[in-house]
Write a structure and sequence with these properties.
The protein is an alpha+beta fold and about 170 residues long. The chain has helices at about 1-25, 25-30, 40-55, 65, 145-160, and strands spanning about 55-60, 80-90, 90-100, 105-110, 115-120, 125-135, 140. It is about 40% helix and about 30% strand.
Length: about 170
């Protein structure tokens, strides 16, 4: 009788080790998920694709991106970007895509008079840093977070309206 309990216990343990990993799987993953695959957000992916297809190659001066944490490893050299620019009333909006940190970084820029307002964002449209760059001066971080967030929201709203396939 003790031998039968031992055999039963071993068989139960073997059965459990075979069944438990299968229970952790979901059937949707086994047959391909119906969910679309996005890197971070559908709008972010669309904006990146639009810039890649329609944008033009350009170089950014390194001072402002360096304040936002983007530097060219080759030293104090310009930052390669692909960008799209559009006008709206008296404002000029530019969105740049750079992959210098091995991820997609978006830099939103708007010229207001002689000052360029720049915001670094990921493709989830989370503002990571903001810089004010006067035409005849040095760039500086925008420490007023309410102002920076408001301007950033205005800039991404412009691009959401301008983006094809909204």
């Amino acid at each position: 009788m003790n031998k039968n309990n031992s055999v039963l216990a071993r068989r139960s343990l073997l059965l459990a080790t075979l069944i438990l990993p299968a229970g952790a799987c979901t059937t949707s993953d086994l047959f391909g998920s119906n969910k679309p695959r996005y890197t971070l957000s559908p709008r972010g992916d669309r904006l990146v694709l639009w810039i890649q297809k329609s944008g033009r190659d350009s170089m950014l001066a390194p001072e402002a991106p360096a304040l936002m944490g983007i530097t060219n490893q080759a030293g104090n050299h310009d930052i390669p970007v692909r960008q799209i620019a559009q006008e709206d009333d008296n404002d000029r909006f530019v969105v740049s895509l750079t992959n210098i940190r091995k991820i997609h970084d978006l830099i939103f820029m708007r010229r207001q008079g002689d000052v360029l307002l720049m915001h670094l964002s990921d493709t989830k449209f989370e503002r990571l840093a903001s810089v004010r760059y006067p035409r005849n001066g040095k760039p500086s971080l925008i420490t007023d977070t309410a102002f920076a967030e408001s301007d950033f929201q205005q800039q991404i709203a412009f691009w959401f309206r301008a983006m094809p396939g909204r």
